[in-house]
Amino acid sequence: MAKALHDISVHQKYITRSKINQLHHYISKITYLLDMSDEPFFNDNGEFAYHYKIMNWIKEENDFCYVDIDVGNYSISGQQLYINKQAITWNRKDNKVLEGACIEQGGGMEVQNAEVPLSRCSEMCQPGTRKKSRSSIHSCCHDCVPCSEGEISNTTGSENCIQCLEDEWSNEKKDRCIPKLVQFLSYSDDISTVFVSISVLLCLVTLFIMGIFISYLDTTIVKANNRSLSFVLLVCIMLSFLCVFLFLGHPINVTCILRVMTFGVIFSIAVSSLLAKTIMVYIAFTATKPGSYWRKWLGVKLPNVVAVLLSCVQCTICLIWLSTSPPFEEMDAHSYQDKIVIQCNEGSVIGFYSVLGYMGFLAAVSFVLAFMVRTLPDSFNEAKYITFSMLVFCSVWIAMIPAYLSTKGKYVVAVEVFTILVSSAGLLSCIFFPKCFMILFRPDLNTQTDLLSKKNRL
Q1: Whole-model pTM?
Q2: What whole-number distance in Å separates Cα of residue 338 and Cα of residue 171?
Q3: How many CB atoms lie within 10 A of CB 402?
């Protein structure tokens, strides 16, 4: 009979409903003799009406051990199910029973309870992770994947991660949003310490050179190279070293305006002074020819007027820039994922590059003109020094542009400060170091007689 029932279950899809009913008609009339007080039978629904005892089976290694304790029972007739949870012993998560779960004592078994397993396909996702469904598998089966950068999940079993605010970032465990680090070129940075030290040192060197020129104010070399423009140039170079401090520390709207205007105007005055000195050198030697038209332009007024006019053009550009779209403080939360960069926004890009462009134009004109008159007599001519200084100046600022565009964060400010220091140091060394050397170590060359004798020899 058992075989017949098995065959029916196997070939059920080939058996019609009427044949099953016919089979049930005969099976229901069979009397079952079991060692029980009640006589089991099949009811009208085809259910085997009997009191079922629920026993506990445990697998230990390769064998099953039977626990002879009822953990529950079920009655079809009464539709009642009873489970004694305290009497159940569960397997561990690794499918091995807890050590000593079945301990043989004499003729029986002593039961020790183990942890109740979770009825889940996958473990619950912990904070910092989210559920990721597996394709073609039941919805309760999933993987736990970490949240992406900038996202968190702070609850167990999260379906999705939460995006942090713009000024926040996820911590290492990705279960909490924390404020982003604020970054700017502060005075406490090592590179700022280097910049400050170099700036102060170069300022002292500039003051020392200015003191030499004041001490030897009436000597031939100092007078021959236009004393007023030389002092203007020294003051501009010293101010350019000091304007480095505007680029360090927490930027605010005032410092953002001052930093770009200061170095733009200061360098324009310095380059304008050099261009005026170069023009004066050219006029001075052209005017020595008999009947020269340029003789009436000799004097101190011409170079001073040239320097002032050229500097006013740059001041006008800066005023237009300030009146239309001035620089301002900006918080950049996009350049770095976990940092906020406090920086100065130039405001008008056209204004920023106009200032740099005009300064480059003055440097280029000064370089070309100085190169043209570099072969004039050495005792009066400083065009070769201006030529070399403008070559250094232009090279530094041209190299600054790709470096400025390719860096971000506080290193943009570091590039600007480095460019200002190097270009100013180039002007100082190329223009004034040779003069100071002659004043201090070759005083025999710093005389009117030597100047005239060399001039006559030429």
Answers
A1: 0.67
A2: 10
A3: 10
Q: State the DSSP string of 88-149.
A: ---B-TTS-BPTTSEEEETTEEEE---PPPP--SSPPPPTTEEEEEPTTS-TT-EEEEEPPT
Domain 190-457 indexed as CATH 1.20.1070.10: yes
Query: What are 130's strand-pairing partners?
Result: 145
Work out the angle at residue 364's Cα, subtended by the Cα atoms of residues 362 and 370, and round it to the nearest 5 degrees: 100
In this structure, what token pair is assigned to residue 314? Answer: 């740059």
> SS3 of 343, please?
strand
| Distance in angstroms (rounded) separating the CA atoms of residues 347 and 117 | 64
**DSSP-derived pairing of the beta strands 108-111 and 129-133:** unpaired
Q: Where are the chain's structural domains?
A: 31-111, 129-179, 190-457
Contact indicator for 409, 339 with CB cutoff of 8 Å: yes
**pLDDT, tens digit, 9 for 90 and up, residues 7-59:** 544 444 455 666 666 766 666 666 665 555 556 666 666 666 666 778 777 66
